[in-house]
Design a protein that fits this description.
Layout (H helix, E strand, L loop, with lengths): L2 H8 L3 H4 L8 E3 L9 H8 L7 E5 L18 E5 L4 H8 L3 E3 L7 H8 L5 E6 L7 E3 L7 H7 L2 E6 L13 E3 L5 E4 L16 H11 L7 E4 L3 H12 L6 E7 L1 H8 L15 E6 L3 H7 L5 E3 L2 H4 L2 H4 L5 E6 L2 E3 L4 E2 L2 E2 L2 E2 L6 H10 L4 E5 L3 E3 L5 E3 L1 E2 L17 E4 L2 E4 L5 H10 L3 H13 L10
Parallel strand pairs: 1-2, 1-5, 2-3, 3-4, 5-7, 7-9, 10-11, 10-14, 11-12, 12-13, 14-19, 15-22, 19-23
Antiparallel strand pairs: 6-8, 15-16, 17-18, 20-21, 23-24
Helix pairs in contact: 5-6, 7-8, 8-9, 14-15
Length: about 450
């Protein structure tokens, strides 16, 4: 039987495909922008027939149809590998929970630890002449998910970019149980956090000055990493490489400015390597069928041992806040989960292990509360319930608009002095008083 004949034999409607889902099942919805669309709507029609269907996924870009009803929690439970704003709403509805992970380990969770999916379903690009469907910009953990799932359903979307890879970036028709041809919705877009502020630009300048020619970049999502990307695109830097968890629009700008060649990468030379990508149509058009890009599973891209092989590795990520011990929180607001651990600590550790590598955690010195008053992001201790995303021994450079400090090798009084020195001036005296109470402030410290 040829691939086209096998495709035709497995082609069913979305309504027909979701009939295999039963109460109590574990169902995977895919990841980020390849989360199912037509299959989700079809499953929502069956809500009254189902109870306790546990759904896995992450970084939702729109509200799933199964959670549109007020009583959705009686039928479906969302289990998120990484939170988005939409998932925070699902949690507030009482229908979902965050699953703490070290993102680099996620494929192993599927293969060794968690209860296998009864059904895994996700969007893919159209089948090629060799019988393969691309996972789009989401190699991430999807092959591990497919290998362990009892049933696999693919939803074909003509708008999904075909992303080339080294391995585990596509699935063959022979490993698929059902094929559904969806409504071809546009691929979900994610902006870069808006136009950079003056604070973003100030922080970006401090970091860009530390980047050498030939460096390999990892950028997180958000205003500050986006500002760094914009400044790199305008700089005189050359022969840069990319090895990142998330591919974002900033990389496209840097590449189109002629700054990326990958010529000095110790591994995967000339390739921009990533685990998943989310951005605007500009980015999706750029990565489509582009041999310069390499889509790869997250247990490769985020493995600190792999990162360490690349000289002059530069890791740039955001944080919510940091305490005077050097503990970084990049995922919660107190007890409220707002993001996820992701791979930040993997890149912090991997960059430090890289010859000439550097890891930067950047944040504005303050944020405005709902009443308009400012609060310091550099705190005496993290708020009750806050997650420690990066432990204090692993953190290297911390950057705010007031400066930069390398925490490696510093004692507690040196850390306190340095961090207070890059805090907003309005909060420094208060932080010194708290540091004195915590017995981490010496009389010889600079006021």
């Amino acid at each position: 039987m040829g691939f086209k004949e096998e495709y035709a034999k497995k082609l069913v409607s979305a309504d027909e495909a979701v009939k295999i889902i039963k109460s109590g099942d574990w169902v995977d919805y895919g990841w980020c922008n390849n989360t199912v669309d037509a299959l989700d709507k079809a499953l929502a029609k069956r809500t009254d027939e189902l109870k306790d269907v546990k759904v896995r996924g992450g970084i939702l870009m729109k509200m799933p149809a199964i959670f549109e009803r007020e009583d959705a929690g009686e039928h479906f439970c969302w289990n998120s590998w990484h939170m988005s704003g939409i998932e925070r709403k699902i949690v507030s509805m009482g229908c979902g929970y965050y699953s703490p992970i070290r993102y680099s380990e996620l494929p192993r969770y599927y293969r060794e630890h968690i209860e296998p999916d009864d059904v895994a379903m996700f969007q893919v690009s159209p089948m090629d002449e060799h019988g393969f469907f691309s996972f789009g910009p989401n190699a991430s953990h999807l092959m591990a998910m497919c290998e362990t799932a009892k049933k696999v359903i693919v939803e074909v979307n003509k708008n999904m970019p075909r992303c080339l890879g080294g391995f585990e970036s596509e699935i063959h028709i022979s490993k698929v149980d059902f094929v559904v041809e969806g409504d071809n919705p546009p691929v979900g877009e994610l902006g870069g956090g808006g136009e950079p502020t003056e604070v973003d630009k100030t922080v970006a300048k401090l970091i860009v000055n530390e980047i050498p020619n030939g460096a390999c970049l990892q950028l997180g999502i958000g205003g500050m990493p986006n500002a760094v990307g914009s400044l790199i695109a305008e700089s005189d830097l050359k022969d840069l490489g990319v090895h990142t968890e998330m591919y974002v629009d900033a990389f496209v700008d840097i590449a189109k400015a002629g700054k990326i060649t990958g010529a000095h990468k110790n591994i995967d030379r000339f390739r921009q390597t990533y685990a998943f990508g989310a951005g605007t149509k500009k980015m999706y058009d750029y990565i489509n069928d582009n041999p310069e890009l390499m889509s790869a599973p997250v247990d490769y891209t985020n493995d600190a041992r792999v990162i360490a092989q690349i000289d002059n590795f530069i890791s740039i990520n955001n944080a919510v806040d940091i305490d005077l011990y050097g503990q970084v929180n990049a995922e919660t607001a107190g007890l409220k989960q707002i993001s996820g651990a992701g791979g930040q600590m993997d890149f912090v550790m991997g960059a430090y292990l890289s010859k000439g590598g550097k890891s930067f955690i950047c944040l504005s010195s303050t944020f405005a509360k709902k009443d308009g008053t400012l609060e310091s992001r550099i705190r005496p201790t993290l708020a009750n319930g806050s997650a420690v995303t990066d432990t204090r021994p692993t953190v290297e450079y911390i950057v705010t608009e007031y400066g930069m400090i390398n925490l490696k090798g510093l004692s507690m009084w040196q850390r306190a002095e340095g961090l207070i020195g890059i805090a907003h001036p309005d909060f420094r005296d208060e932080l010194i008083k708290e540091a004195e109470k915590m017995n981490i402030w010496r009389k010889s410290n600079k006021k």
